[in-house]
Amino acid sequence: MILPLIRLTALRHLTHAQVRTALTVIGIALGVALYVAIRLCNTSVNASFRDSLAAVSGSATLEVVGGEAGFDESLYAVVTAAPDVLAAAPIVQRTVAIDGTDESLIVLGIDPFSEAPFRDHGQSHGIDPRIGDLDTLPEPFLLNSSAVLVTEPFAARRGAAAGGTLRVIDRDRSIALTVAGVLAPGPLADAWGGRIALMDLAAAQWTFDRLGRLDRIDVLTAPEAAERVAGDLRRQLPPDMVVQRPERRLAHTEQVVRSLQVNLTALSGIALLVGLFLIYNTMAYSLLRRRAEIGLLRALGVTRTRLFGALAVESLLFGAAGGLVGVPLGWFLAWGALGTVSATVEALYQGAPAQSIALTPGLAAEGLVLGCVVAGLAALVPIAEALRTVPREVLHVGWVERRRSRRAGPLAVLGLVWFALAAAAAQAGPVAGVPLFGYAAALFVVLGGACLAPLAGRWLGRVVDPLALRLGWVEARIAGGTLSATPGRTAVAVGALMTALAMMVSVVVMVGSFRRTVERWIAETISADLYLTPAARPAVGPSARFSDDTILSAIASVGGVAAVDPYRQIPIEYDGRPHLVSARDLAVVRDRGSLQFARGDPRALLARLAAGEGVAVSEVMARAHGLRAGDRITLPAPGASVSLPILGVFYDYATDGGRVLMDRSLFVRHWRDRGVNAVAVYLAEGADPERVSRAIADALGPSHHVAVTSNRALKRDILEVFDQTFAITRALDVVALVVAMLGIANTVLAIVLERRRELGVLRALGATRLQVGGVVLCEAGLIGVLGALLGIATGLGVSVILIRVVNVQSFGWTIAFWWDPLEIAGAAVLALLAAVAAGWFPARRAARLPIVEVLQHE
Amino acid sequence: MIRLENVGKAYARGSQAVWAVRGVNLDVSAGEFHVVIGPSGSGKSTLLHLIGTLDLPSEGTVWVDGRATGACSDRVLTRWRREHIGLVFQSFNLLPYLTAWENIALPRLLQRVPSAQVTREVEALIEAVGLGGRAAHWPHELSGGEAQRVAIARALVTRPRLLLADEPTGNLDSARGLEILTLLSTLAASSGATTVLVTHSPDAARFAHRTTRLRDGRIDA
Asked: I want to staple A693 with a disulfide (CB 3.0 to 4.6 A). Which of A270, A708, B37, B116 is the partner?
């Protein structure tokens, strides 16, 4: 019996109200599309990481890695001699920049004799695929100390043919490599977007100043023996060396980008939430108009259960249709967004470039199910309400509206309950590092705001009524009267717009606060006049270092240079998580620059740090590991672990990983590393930065390729990266607003359809088409005003949660709350314009209603 | 005041045209209270819509105050309707979200008349239709008779030259219906408005200066 019921009620209504059906389906489709697009981008970025790391690691079950300085190659013998080690391959790995570009190239120095069990190197052109066999390698690969094998995509992109020269920048030195051959497509050739090259181990050690040293040893064991072998190796190798499964590097990487990805997914969910309002609205209106039909069906003996089934199927059809449109749309959007997301991940985390989008059946099904779940959830309340009504109560829409409007008070109380729940959820900590309760608190604030919509609508209507009457603005008076008498009618559209605007306001405030915090931070901490980095840095990232520290004395001796602050940064693992150790000349920082500390006098703290009394940790690290000033921290250093006192906690927005800061003297003492990644140069008073830059370049000579950035340019670059990082969140805002516009258009259209007779009467009484259209536009405008007011209030509430809870639990940064009233007013005006624009089509339709037809029809 | 010359109105039903009225000739003089009587489906309401400029004839000409409605633009007809026609419907057609007072004032507000003047006019009409004390009520709080009084007051608030009433007693019991007809004829007479009232009830004929009978879209001879 239910099938004919579905055909006669659900399908008939969907096809009858084509415009409204289309608006609803598009709204759901956009929500699903956004979710699918972000999921696809995240999956693609992760897959790119995973595939690249897997290809480089090959079939290794374990890897032995040292710090940035690498380790002595004699340890290779220790590893190969360990029991149950089936094979071991020594590796030297160096990331270089292609000269004159921002493109990086990962050069793997391999021992061809050890490689066969590990990696699929594909086939070099014209030779046998077995790279482990000497006969299969191009002759120059072994004989020429600068020979490399490059990938096909790279060769095509750079026009690198066998026998040609490839000029790269290693740190600050220009090197000419010889292309000995091209690797055919394969997992290794596809890794890191093809930006990988192979070199003979000895040649790599020679070329990259790694004589006698290795960066990694890949180890092959029986799978079941891996843990045992790892334990054996840890006991035999120096303590600063890490023996781990290759997957651990992937876990580290995924852990690092997870916060960004969770945040993007959560933001994409907001559009779905707006879509939920849309479905609720559509079903509520549809059922409101069909109460007589429902009553009749009930009177004819259709049970509530069957009727519920038929109506539920109707809502699910909305969801399924939205999902069917949304999934391919999401795939399409993902192609557009991939570049931005991938660039952000590359810029922030030096990740592998994501190149392809793979829509799996699983994700397509996820999008489809999500559309159905959202539609089903949203329709539950309207269906339950419609089925509760007994047939004799089915009088007319006005009766239902009055009953609904009586609920405005209780709903407002429910709103306050949501706010209280939000406050409680905001106190809870993260779940597995994800601020689930923070997101829940943000959702509760939005739900609370939505519950206030009917009461706020009534109040707004009451304010508008007399004002419009006094002004003789009859259109506004009618619209205000409708709003105050039937706030429930427009509440859902208000809720949709409010949600979209709340998201926009909260993101604007969060990003604005963050930007301002970062602006203040860079103004205080970036105080040197010039910054020197190795020329490879733009392509390689902050890990790029100068080839030696003799540049420091050369720079210091240049006329006009007052002080030099060498900057060194190395990655470490602390408590199972990746962090950085940074070393600077903190006496120079104390005298000429500054740092922001959470507590204590910065100058006094810097003086103690400069004296090598201890270290400072970034607030991210302090939060992540519960560290405080006065604690001791044990760090892995070459040869032995070092335990140092923590003197203070400093603010650091340069990385969302943790950082330990110490004076260069302390670092050199324990790490025996005199490397330099960047040099901050303070000029003497009156010195001309341009002239000093040129003099420094001359002093360093042609053997050092450096990039010189002025203070202002560096600050600008940092803020550019910042803005690029948040560009996608702005795009997500816009989609949510479009979904809300669909909601308003849908609602106002429903109002027009439902009030055809009233509008017809107005025309019969002499109202012009313009006046009737004006009434509809005023109603849309009032929805806009209400949505804007509630959206701003709710958005500010959500922004506090984003800044104080979600951000702190995701990234660990302290962000000072700040908002620009003009920017918020701009968002409100945008919402208002969106509402009026959404009302345009319904207004036109209302103005063109055939008077006699609507008067006779009703 | 009103002249209908061989007027017909057809509606499309599928591919066929169905004539609601056809070959109607009618003259209504200024100040006349004219009643059109006919059974359901005889075309009374269509005739009233044609006279009230809500609809245009498919054939023939409707002259209202010397101008042919078919030759006027929608803008002109709307202005004419706003300034010179008062309409009373069977189902009152009050706007549910305006009070009785505001419903009466609505046509004047649509004309952008200053609120002080509107207040004076509405107050006077509320007294005239006997709605003192009910002005601030919402339509759903009024009885059928009261709602129709509000509708009559709304129709008269612009001091129309033409008052059109479509089955004004159709939703009322006979006693209330008689009260409404009495009120309508009294106010029409005092305002000097030409009135056309269509009804299926022969009782209304006794208020008429002249009566026309309509059957199957044509005037009974």
From this structure: A708
